[in-house]
Amino acid sequence: MPKHSKRYNQLAERIDADREYTPEEALELLSEESSIKFDETVELHLKTGADVRHADQQVRSVTVLPHGLGKPQRVLVFAQGEAADMARQAGADYVGDDDLIKQIEDGWVEFDVGLAVPDIMSKIGRLGRVLGRRGLMPNPRTGTMVQPRDLGRVIDEAKKGRLEFRTDRTAIIHCPVGKVSFSQQHLLENLSSLVDSIQRARPEGVKGAYLRSAYLTTSMGPGVKLDLGALVALKEGL
Question: How far is Cα 47 from Cα 211, in angstroms, rounded to an integer?
Answer without folding.
Answer: 6
